[in-house]
Amino acid sequence: MADAERLPQPVLQAPRRRRGRRSSVRSWRRTDQLIWALAWLAGIGVCVVVGAIVAFLTAKGLGALSPKLLVTRPSPSVDQSGSGGFLDPIIGTLTLAAIGTLIATPLALMTAVWVVEYGRPRWLAATVETSIEMVAATPDIVLAIFGLALFQFGILAPLSFRGSGGGVYGRSFFAAGITMSLIALPLTYTATRNGLRSTPRQLREASYALGKTRAATIRRVLVPRVRSDVATGATLGMGRIIGSTAIVVLLLGATLQNSSQGSVPLLGFLRGTGSTLTSYVLENSPAGEGNAPQKAYAAAFVLLLIVLVLNAIVARISRIGDAAGLSAGRLSL
Amino acid sequence: MSIDPLIIDRPEGPPAPHVTSNTLRAVASQTRPERMRLSDISVFYDGVPAVRQASLSIHQGEVLALIGPSGCGKTTLLRTLNRLTELTPNASHSGRITLDGDDIHELEDTRLRTRVSMVFQQPNPFPMSIFDNVAFALREQSRRRPRRRELEPLVTQALQRAGLYDEVRDNLDRPALRLSGGQQQRLCIARAIATEPEILLMDEPCSALDPRSTAVIEKLILQLRSELAVVIVTHNLQQARRVADRVAFMYLGDLVELGTADQLFDAPREERTRDYIAGAFG
Amino acid sequence: MVVFVAQRAWPTLSHEGLSWLGSGGNVDNQIGSMANTSSSPPASAFYLRAWPLMYGTLLTAGLAVIAGLVISLLTSIFIVDLAPPPVRRAMTPVIRLLASIPSVILGLIGILAVVPFVGAHLITGGEKESVINVIQLTGAGLLVSVFTLTVMVTPIMTALITEALGSVPRSWHEGAIALGLSPLRATIAVSLRAIRPAIIAATALATARAMGEAIVIDMVSGGKAFSPNPADGLIFIFEPLRTLASEIIDQAEGLSEPALRSSIYAFALLLMFSGFMLSIGSRLVRRPLRKYELSS
Lengths: 333, 282, 296
Fold this sequence. Notes:
The complex is a heterotrimer of chains A (333), B (282) and C (296).
Chain A: H1 2-6, H2 30-64, H3 67-71, H4 87-118, H5 122-137, H6 140-151, H7 173-197, H8 201-209, H9 214-225, H10 227-243, H11 246-252, H12 265-271, H13 277-284, H14 293-332
Helix pairs in contact in A: 2-14, 4-7, 4-10, 4-13, 5-7, 6-7, 6-11, 7-10, 7-11, 8-9, 10-14, 13-14
Chain B: E1 34-45, E2 48-59, E3 63-67, H1 74-81, E4 91-99, E5 102-103, H2 109-115, E6 116-119, H3 130-141, H4 148-161, H5 165-168, H6 181-193, E7 199-203, H7 211-224, E8 229-233, H8 237-243, E9 246-251, E10 254-260, H9 261-266, H10 271-277
Parallel strand pairs in B: 3-8, 3-9, 6-7, 7-8
Antiparallel strand pairs in B: 1-2, 1-4, 4-5, 9-10
Helix pairs in contact in B: 3-4, 3-6, 4-6, 6-7
Chain C: H1 2-16, H2 27-35, H3 51-82, H4 85-100, H5 103-122, H6 125-130, H7 142-166, H8 170-178, H9 183-194, H10 196-212, H11 215-220, H12 244-250, H13 258-286
Helix pairs in contact in C: 1-13, 3-7, 3-10, 4-7, 5-7, 7-10, 8-9, 10-13, 12-13
């Protein structure tokens, strides 16, 4: 507006921020004062607790940790210093995480795609959703028991450890890994499903308008787009797998060393029993058989580090995903 | 009829006169005491001025309309009146605002907002029953917990003044969110006037409503102004014509012109005002 | 899955019937004698009274969830209203970290640090003497179990509640402030009321996790299937106990013995059943609250 420009605008500088009088805490009702104080207490308390846990674990764990521990195998020994390191448990942890995630991720992806994109018949989709929710709410032990019962069946016997008497125990890396995937499944599924749901409809419509079939759309357009959500869910699942002890104890035998079954190299390993960092910690604490608190601390520390790293990865991925998703969203509109 | 002081603790202010006539718009200004005065108010967001040195006064018994194109600062100006601008972290201001002679920044903000109430553009009733919505501020105000018996007459009165009582009297415990848009907005008005504020601020209260509800609420505004002062922000010029006694036109943060409704609409002094009213820009 | 576990548990239940849920006798001895029976045991071998375990489960989970609920509500209020912005930004990853700490680590700290502390400093010699003929007080017991469970459960609830608080429409909060409430009061009176369904769901989830948590309890609860008795006075918080879940994990070796096996499956069935009831219960409770929500 030419008129507006003509008039000279007085120059105003922004003053320092002046705050009006606020109602002070003193004047509140008694209950509110109490809540205010308690809330502050809670907030600070939580920070303190977290700090204490991390600090404590680091102090004790770092002190006991040495590179040697990471690469030697544990051996049964009465003397603490001679009982070796925890290479086996580390391998065990990684193996289980790998198996669990490898099984869970494609399954979760396919299920999520089916539910969101197809979803007929309705009752089936609802049932799937509800069952996944129930599995998510089931505590680890129950899943472990279930897995145990499952793998004791004759059909699945080749997958597990056989006792010397030929009895099928139902324990092996296979068994544990497959059961672990049940833990990771709901997490990956939910993340993927939310990612799919939040993609704007325009994206799909644009793809159809270009003549692509539904399957191709899913494959080429949607799946790449939710990559970060899938990754987030998979990493969360991995985190839970790594942190789970109950399943390991029940389904992996929690032996100190990883012992193979049979002669075929990889297969034999997977059929055998073993341990992970979590069961190692358990065993070495006074609650288990071991008597090596330092080792337990060291292993716990390593475990904590892994979890921290995984958490950071999740944070990174979801931030990258947000940024990419936002810009892609704007583009598609 | 004053509020039982057990329910509302509030320092004594000038009593609101109970004029019930609502036909005449041209009432002599001696019967309209000044309630609020703004002196050289400027508001800054992150150092950028949104309102520049605006000065005006607000009188009981009249409706003051703030008009102007989008982004001209009228909503910001409105929100300084109940210090709602303080909710924005990077906002600062200069100038002085008084309510009945007291600088509002010397008052407690919670107290201030019971004397200067606000109704928003989107009706925002709480997820509670109708009764609980209206009684909400009353309950929060008192030192001790008032019983429902004590609150009922006040709630009824507020609903009556807001013109909603007859429609909901059969069941006040219905969820407020089940009401229609117009009813919800009237509920928000009832909620705002339940504490018998001296000033009622309205930020485009009808822009989310259909024409019929708008007419109902405009009639309501004319009725309410006899008991309190109403400041309404609107981008609808016809609405301003219908309800306002005095009009302030703002443009790009400046208070360009201030006058009675007849003056401003029929014989605007400033060229910018003329152009805006003629629809040259919006 | 349900069918499976149920089938395995059937022998126990069929032999004992509902009295299986009752109390009486020392569970440890009962389990012990079970392990010693042969593979085709007589009916009497199924004798087990599960009440002490159930009591332990309910007690620990219940107390932990109650404590956790209070703390997480307060913490959420803190995060949303009271914390200065840099602290607020920092707290979200902190809570998430706490939520993802594997339970073994918590149990480890519990057993190696907290238990000895409690045993040495909080329990006096006199108190130990007073119950020595029934049970040994070592510091591992109810108090530490509840404490550790609370630490485990609180972050999850806090994260859920904070997220729910963030999704409340801002217009309500602003409207409440415009009516003359302070921000804290506005949050309590409006937002917390508005997210009641989410709070209930979070509580149900936390309870399910707490009830099913075996590893932590196994490490810090004292290993004796004892029922802490409030009638003992304040000491009772120090008494050891066992829960269903920790019993399962402890006896996992014994799955070849039919009697023991079906007992264990029965425990699992009980846990599953209660989780199921929690889920249904929380839905039922939330339904009447729905009418106050936005119909979006």
